[in-house]
């Protein structure tokens, strides 16, 4: 069996799908990857578990004319390699792969598409429904299996009668080898190695962009440190908003309270040494950074969006904040600094809730789809 993974960029494959590719190789699959090579931008990421890798010059915008050449290149690869399955991800990768492979489905090619969070959803801007919904609905005709990673997207695809078999899988699987809860002794030792002592460490992980909305957290810190000068926000990631965030930190004189870590390949260490994980993003599919916090037993404060709601039950294993509430992050960060009992309750409940999202569970769900054992809704 030969399977091709397609995504806009190779970093997406490396960050989210290597455990599944490893599983497929162990089950006798020949695994190929087609995506633009951007790994030089992502410190330390490397492609593993791929028998062959094709560097395809995809562009993120579906309307970029350069994608015409990428489409032709991908179509040629699919024709020559004669895959049994093409599993595509990301909006552009998903569109171009399904278009390139549509004529080969009559020869037995199965086209699987994972929607890592539809751009149209309850509360999404009207333009998202006007632009993205018709595209995804149309492309479903070229999709044998549509995988959704949130219950909300699954229900939407079913209610709107998308074509193909529609499945719900619990994300991409949080890595249980890399992310484990440390003992208090090991955690304190690691904090010292990273150069921290008595700070209350608040961690936010993600690309520095407008959707991830790190500026809201920085502004919240301006108030939090007035009550809790021991609080320190760590922002892990790189991206187009870097300079703007640096300017905001300087403007608010928060240099001692907000630290930009850059892109980290040892992010598991920072998850373990932190006291609280936060996210203020406007939109999420099923955020892996929150799952990584949960598996390490961390309390979470997150913006109230569809992806966060899938993982966080308000006041059970974390707190959901309405982004229209200007004091939401301020008040709740202060609450968890002050109340160890609440933080402990969230931590314990996160360790229980994460079980179905672990990579082992997700592998079991996916192998049923790959092997055709699950041709009905799961």
Please explain how this structure is put together.
The protein is an alpha/beta fold and 378 residues long. The chain has two domains: 2-173 and 358-370, 3-Layer(aba) Sandwich (Rossmann fold), CATH 3.40.50.2000; 184-356, Rossmann fold (3-Layer(aba) Sandwich). The protein is built from 15 helices and 13 strands. The chain has helices spanning 10-16, 18-26, 66-81, 91-101, 126-139, 151-159, 184-193, 214-227, 242-251, 267-273, 288-295, 306-311, 328-338, 340-353, 359-370, and strands at residues 2-9, 30-36, 52-55, 85-88, 110-115, 145-148, 165-168, 200-205, 231-236, 258-262, 276-279, 300-303, 319-321. The strands form two sheets. The chain has a seven-stranded parallel beta sheet. The protein has a six-stranded parallel beta sheet with strand order 10-9-8-11-12-13, with helices on both faces. Strand 6, helix 6 and strand 7 form a beta-alpha-beta unit. The longest helix is centred in the N-terminal third of the chain and has 16 residues, at 66-81. Residues 2-148 form the Glycosyltransferase subfamily 4-like N-terminal domain. This is Glycosyltransferase family 4 protein. InterPro entries: Glyco_trans_1, Glyco_trans_4-like_N. Residues 187-350 form the Glycosyl transferase family domain. It holds the Pfam family Glyco_trans_4_2.
